[in-house]
Amino acid sequence: MVTEKGSRKEPLKNTLPKGRCYGINDMNTKQDLQQELKKIDHKSYSLYKNLTGQYQFGDFIFSIEKVQGDPFAAPSRVRVTIPRSTHGFPKELYQEKVTKTALEDAILRCWNREVRSLNTRQMGSGNSGKIAVCPCGQEVIERMAVSIEKEQIQGRFLIGFPAKGRSIFADALGDILFQILPNMVKKVFCYTSYKPNELEENKKLALDQKYIREQLDSLGLIAFIGDGAVLPRESGVSQRPLKNAISFQSPESQKITLELPYHGAMTGMGIKKGITVVVGGGYHGKSTLLNAIEAGVYNHIKGDGREFVITESTATKIRAEDGRSICKTDIQMFINHLPNQKDTKVFSTENASGSTSQSANMIEALEAGANTFLIDEDTSATNFMVRDHVMEEIVLKEKEPITPFINRAKALYEQQGISTVIVVGSSSAYFTVADTVLQLDSYKVKDIKEQVDKVIGKYPNMWINTCEKLPDVDFHRKIKQIDMSYKGRDLKIKTMGTDTICLNKENIDVRYLEQLIDSGQTVAIGYLLKYAMEKLVDNKKTMQEIINKLFGLIEEKGFSYLIPKGYAAGFPVLPRPQEVFFAWNRFRELKIERE
Questions:
Q1: Sign of torsion, CA 342 345 350 354?
Q2: Which of 151, 348, 495, 584 could pair with 522 in a Cys bridge, judged by C-beta atoms 3.0 to 4.6 Å apart?
Q3: Is the dihedral of CA 128, 131, 137, 139 positive or negative?
Q4: pLDDT tens-digit series, residues 387-406
Q5: Phi, psi of 6 (to 5 degrees)
Q6: Do both 296 and 363 map to the same domain?
Q7: C-alpha pair distances (Å), 416 with each of 215, 328, 468, 557
Q8: pTM above 0.90, yes or no
């Protein structure tokens, strides 16, 4: 890559001007960086910013994209670019999107292990010497930290540029960049460092998971749970599989066999389209089953126990969410003729109740393209779910603005193809609309539909669903432009785990979006909303049209295209379109126009 010692290779795009220049589009050499470090050693920390740019390190390119302001600030954002001539990963490992994501995930996990093994001795004040890469959970998701683009691999990470007090500590940074970094690139980003059979197995698992997901619709299923799966998790704060847990076994009546491309024959439970009711005593595994199904919208790594728990990709967890804001959402399918004459076709509130929030959550899920609702009675508004006969006699129908979900569940499936999986523990009413009834008994699943039908037959006056025609729902909500600048500055994004996205001073509460499983997804949602509000909102497009455009751009140009260079917040991880919808709907500055 360098013809003679100290000579400079022609830059990839532009010929370097005379004199030293470190713009982001320039290409300097490793030797240039070494010389510049010597010049600024022991000087003001702010001079580190002069290093911003790209450097040819022989077998790879090292880029400094954003330099921290002082040693106590968030570490500097950097990137390595490794060409195929260096990385050597066979094309067949990343030809398809699903295998590409699986390979990126495997590389990132290797990178995490390598960083953990480094000597993390203190190299100075503040964050000096800190090396951080995007963490990984149990799911295989597209993470911007490692991306294969046009056969080259991009690796994005953080380095705390070392300091003594508030002065540059060049020797320490030199140790990182010229000793640790090249060795790390060789171990993490080169095919020769991996066991080929492990990467091949990784690819095969991804293709088997893809096959199952593609077969669900034609088989009339919304989910598949393979026999032998481990559904319980280690703890409330760990998604690792619980050791010595009872493995899943399908009841015979629900068992199907799939012939997978690589695994071969696999048996398991197919959860059919329609209404599935899950019952059982407390602590017997009802919510564990539901949680596994809702997490099944993502692929999982080998050894997770849920590798073959596969759910159709739009399935959405629905719950009550007291206090959320709602902006001009048509909730008349569930709530109408309010006593204050408030229009529920364009319903807005800054402080939703349990029933109005769950109504809006369900309508917004339909707007976001969900084909399956996942509901747990424990996190639902009681008056939204069901009304018994006695209550109907005490509070007459014309005096009750809420149409319970039980009155709509059958119609939603028969008229719109929306399936429901619902966990219940106290009300038998949903038995009357159930297509399938599953009982959890010490984590073992039983099909008890026949037994339930016999019991229902003893009570001829039990509630019976009339399956009335559903009212039309208006999703035509045009997003209005708003000024998101703050004191003349660009929109600033901060996040707090999977709980909060902060756009300038406005917090978006996303803690009840239970299928947000990675803190990087909230980071990505923040930047996707920023891109949408700045470049796509035009007072004409609806939320559906804008989010469809966003994900069309991701499909066409890649996830990183929508994330600004030198971004400040976290490690972006690709969310589903559904979670982008739901977060935007919770933005209290959202302005919507209806015709």
A1: positive
A2: 495
A3: positive
A4: 877 777 677 676 789 999 99
A5: 85, -10
A6: yes
A7: 20, 22, 13, 33
A8: yes
